[in-house]
Write a structure and sequence with these properties.
By secondary structure, this protein is an alpha/beta fold. About 35% of the residues lie in helices and about 15% in strands. The chain has helices at about 40-50, 60-80, 95-105, 120-125, 145-155, 180-190, 210, 235-240, 280-295, 300-320, 350-360, 370-380, 415-424; strands at about 15-20, 25, 30, 90-95, 110-115, 135, 160-165, 190-195, 215-220, 230-235, 250-255, 265, 325, 340-345, 360, 365, 400-405. The protein has a 7-stranded mixed sheet, sandwiched between helices. It has a 4-stranded antiparallel sheet with strand order 13-14-17-16, covered by helices on one side. A two-stranded antiparallel sheet has the order 1-2. It starts with 15 loop residues before the first strand and ends with a helix. The structure holds 4'-deoxy-4'-aminopyridoxal-5'-phosphate (PMP). Keywords: Aminotransferase, Transferase.
């Protein structure tokens, strides 16, 4: 066995939940891909800072200065965590969705965006601007096919600014994408590339320099920090040249009433340009704390632990003939601690509800905000929404949605074993 990495101890391991029969069991949180539990260390850091927090970049008082320092130090910690290049910047956002919408808002007019239809909606949809074209690439069936498809699409694209957006690890299959190869292909054609690292960063080191991506986006709440803060990091030029994502205080360097009655604004350069309003200082500090904890613990132990759990999970599920694991690149392709499946003759929503009510196991069911991908994996059309919003299949029919199990730091063997036993 590979033991739990203690420096990455998480909160909530001893939460008791009631089952249908009234009995109580400890909750098995197997939905890390939606939101991971916070690290104890992150919680402690935030609690230690809480009595001192003040507004940043505004106050002359001691606590405002302290908070400004901590906020800017948090930016530097994230830059280190992502191994950014000189001149790159870290913008604090609300989460990955916000980060990618921010990037979409700064694209030069006439940009063409290339995105695989297999992406999460957060990386599939923000590019739909009137002055931006989007090419949706078909679901590839191997990493090589993904690289070749991008190569071909970019080769056919006329001159002009181009952006590729790609996920590092799928939120549905957990499969790791060939980011370095896609980045090299993008750059060979003069395109830029943004990495959606929402699912990769919590499981693997992400070096912007080494992967050679232009931007990276991730969410605090999937990286063992609380909700409400995320990151967009990378090249400054497009960010500094565009109108601010949000107009307001903090983004403006100087605002003056003109003689003709209009108002002239000089916007900030750097991260402040896109961080108008009072920023989420605690969120940024929590992300930095999580980055530090992951760096100090090292990813090796976490990766080894997750791979061990994946092996245990897959071996267990392989013995249940009714289970079909969803995969784009093949079951042997490297994945993070995320796996989706369907069970023959079972409706995935009912199945997941039973895992919760009868076994105290929390997973996710549905189409995981990646409708085209899940539809491709299930090989069928999406059913019309049911009353509760989820596509419905009656017992005995082919399921039109899936079940996702996901885990990470702090997941004990027992959670995976209980899950496999419950499925069986
Ligand atoms: N991209 C991927 C791959 C994701 O899994 C998610 C969250 N499920 C997002 C983007 C969006 O993240 P958030 O909801 O934190 O904005």
């Amino acid at each position: 066995t590979v033991s739990v990495c203690e420096p990455l101890a998480v909160l909530g391991r001893d939460v008791e939940v009631p089952l249908v029969g009234g009995e109580k069991v400890s909750y098995a949180a197997l939905d890390y891909a939606a939101s991971a539990p916070a690290l104890q260390r992150v919680w402690d850091d935030v609690a230690a800072y809480a009595p001192y927090y003040g507004s940043v970049h505004r106050g002359a008082g001691y606590l405002s200065q302290l908070s400004t320092d901590l906020f800017e130090q948090s930016r530097a910690t994230v830059a280190e965590f992502l191994d950014l290049r000189d001149g790159d910047q870290v913008v604090f956002t609300r989460a990955t969705t916000d980060s990618l919408n921010l990037l979409a808002s700064v694209l030069p007019a006439g940009t063409r965006v290339f995105v695989f239809e297999t992406e999460h909606h957060a990386s599939l949809l923000p590019w739909r601007r009137e002055d931006v074209g989007v090419s949706y690439l078909r679901a590839p069936r191997s990493p090589q096919e993904a690289v070749a498809a991008l190569d071909q699409a970019l080769a056919q694209c006329p001159e002009g600014p181009k952006l590729v957006c790609v996920t590092g690890a799928s939120n549905v299959t957990g499969e790791i994408w060939p980011v370095r190869e896609l980045a090299a292909t993008a750059h060979r054609h003069g395109a830029r590339i943004v990495l959606d690292a929402a699912q990769l960063a919590p499981h693997h080191p992400v070096s912007v320099r080494d992967l050679d991506v232009d931007w990276v986006a991730f969410s605090g709440h999937k990286l063992y920090a609380p909700f409400g803060a995320g990151v967009l990091a990378g090249r400054s030029d497009w960010l500094d040249a565009a109108e601010p994502y949000l107009a307001g205080g903090g983004a403006s360097r100087s605002v003056a009433r003109e003689a003709d009655g209009s108002v002239a604004v000089e916007w900030q350069q750097g991260p402040a340009r896109h961080e108008a309003g009072s920023p989420n200082v605690i969120g940024a500090y929590a992300i930095a704390s999580a980055c530090k904890a992951l760096t100090e613990a090292g990813f090796e132990g976490l990766v080894a632990r997750e791979q061990y759990l994946i092996g245990r999970l897959r071996a267990g599920l392989a013995e249940i003939p009714q289970v079909k694991v969803l995969t784009l690149f093949g079951e042997e392709h490297p994945r993070v601690g995320v796996l989706s499946f369907v069970v023959q003759d079972w409706n995935s929503s009912h199945f997941s509800a039973a895992l919760s009510a009868e076994y105290g196991i929390g997973v996710r069911d549905g189409l995981f905000c990646a409708h085209p991908l899940v539809r491709t994996l299930l090989g069928g059309e999406e059913a019309p929404p049911s009353e509760c919003g989820a596509p419905e299949a009656l017992p005995g029919e082919r399921s039109l949605n899936a079940i996702r199990v996901s885990f990470g730091a702090g997941t004990p063997d027992e959670h995976v074993d209980r899950f496999v036993a419950a499925v069986r």
